């Protein structure tokens, strides 16, 4: 290749890259950005928020504050935008807020408009570079481009773009939140219930999946690292659920003759166990699964009926993959911290108890009466200082009550 040809090729590549980073139509979104600025003037945005930015699945996320109650969140999604539009407006819709964490979800509209996965990658890298320049040290997470029934013919491009961005995230220290596979059903197609009527945007059920992934992906991936350090037993008894499982640190020594595994993740809800059942349960091909979850659901505002529905979904998912697997549910435990919610928790347990009677593969363990004193209140000496989680005395009770069901 002579010098003239090399120069021409370099100019073509430079032009291509520049075009890839140009916004699709910045004037189209000026109104949206000015609306954000007007909202800021009317009411000061939270300081150091967790900021969500991107296209319409971010903009339409009205339940965002409710889902992250303990954290100040700020939604700066603008519908129809491409990733390169987010890059163009990053100073006005991201950097100015000095967020503590940034979640980005965009790229699908770029592909739908005919841009290549490589061009989407270039825009993503430009976004990260601008953020790192303007907000050094601020963590960025990319929520993967989701599948959608309305654009299923573009799925291979979506997969390629996600793969390129995931690789770039690994190199740049950016979290890649993988939701693509979580939104597919057993048939490999998008689950219809996760989308509204247009078959493009998320329903609240879809946002359940995204919320779960944001909260728990790191802990779930940590289980995989543990498996590499210590091979899991064959056909184990897997304990899964929330913090009362995770904090059962004596589980293996309590049942030394049994192949027990602890796959609890603290703060989780029944839906989270369903959402990640393939990675916390199914992959191990267990003989028995023991679940304790539901209290966080009720404390977070979910109804007993929702807890029951999520448990049934968990059972169906596990049995679809492992038809002979037994599943045991531990009743909600009474504790001083949530005593006012106990009626709802007991209702959820009652619904699940009746359901377990319909299938010989299901069991129900009632720990409730064993944790009460003579006065009918939770025994105060079996909890740690938060009056929610158990101490060694509490787990000694569970060992005696749960043990016979593991045989």
TrEMBL record:
Entries under InterPro entries matching the protein: Ester_Hydrolysis_Enzymes, SGNH_hydro, SGNH_hydro_sf
Keywords: Signal
Origin superkingdom: Bacteria
Residues making up the signal peptide according to the UniProt record: 1-20
Location of the SGNH hydrolase-type esterase domain: 59-208, 258-397
Gene3D superfamilies the record matches: SGNH hydrolase
GO molecular function: phosphatidylcholine lysophospholipase activity
Protein name: Lysophospholipase L1-like esterase
């Amino acid at each position: 290749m002579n010098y003239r040809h090399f120069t021409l090729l370099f100019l073509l590549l430079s032009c291509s890259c520049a075009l890839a980073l140009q916004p699709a139509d910045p004037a189209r979104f000026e109104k949206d950005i000015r609306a954000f600025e007007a909202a800021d003037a009317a009411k000061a945005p939270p300081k150091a928020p967790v900021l969500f930015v991107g296209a319409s699945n971010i903009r339409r996320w009205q339940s965002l504050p409710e889902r992250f109650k303990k954290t100040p969140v700020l939604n700066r999604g603008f519908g129809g935008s491409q990733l390169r539009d987010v890059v163009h407006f990053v100073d006005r819709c991201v950097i100015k807020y000095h967020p503590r964490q940034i979640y980005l979800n965009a790229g699908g509209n770029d592909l739908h408009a005919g841009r290549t996965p490589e061009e989407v990658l270039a825009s993503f890298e430009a976004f990260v570079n601008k953020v790192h320049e303007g907000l050094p040290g601020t963590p960025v997470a990319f929520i993967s481009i989701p599948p959608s029934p309305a654009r299923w013919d573009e799925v291979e491009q979506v997969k390629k773009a996600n793969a390129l961005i995931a690789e770039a995230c690994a190199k740049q220290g950016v979290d890649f939140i993988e939701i693509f596979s979580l939104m597919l059903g057993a048939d490999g197609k998008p689950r219809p219930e996760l989308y509204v009527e247009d078959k493009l945007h998320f329903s609240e059920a879809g946002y359940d999946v995204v919320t779960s992934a944001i909260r728990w992906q790191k802990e779930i991936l940590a289980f995989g690292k543990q498996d590499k350090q210590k091979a899991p037993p064959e056909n184990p008894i897997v304990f899964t659920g929330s913090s009362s499982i995770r904090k059962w640190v004596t589980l293996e020594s309590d049942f030394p003759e049994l192949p027990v595994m602890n796959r609890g993740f603290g703060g989780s809800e029944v839906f989270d166990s369903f959402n990640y059942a393939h990675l916390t349960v199914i992959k191990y091909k267990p003989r028995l699964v023991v679940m304790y979850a539901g209290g966080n659901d009720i404390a977070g505002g979910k109804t007993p009926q929702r807890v029951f529905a999520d448990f049934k979904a968990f059972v169906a998912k596990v049995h679809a993959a492992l038809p002979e697997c037994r599943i045991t549910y531990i009743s909600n435990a009474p504790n001083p911290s949530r005593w006012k919610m106990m009626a709802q928790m007991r209702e959820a347990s009652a619904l699940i108890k009746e359901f377990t009677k319909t299938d010989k593969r299901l069991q129900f363990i009632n720990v409730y009466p064993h944790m009460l004193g003579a006065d009918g209140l939770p025994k105060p000496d079996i909890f740690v200082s938060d009056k929610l989680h158990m101490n060694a005395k509490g787990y000694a009770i569970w060992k005696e009550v749960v043990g016979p069901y593991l045989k």
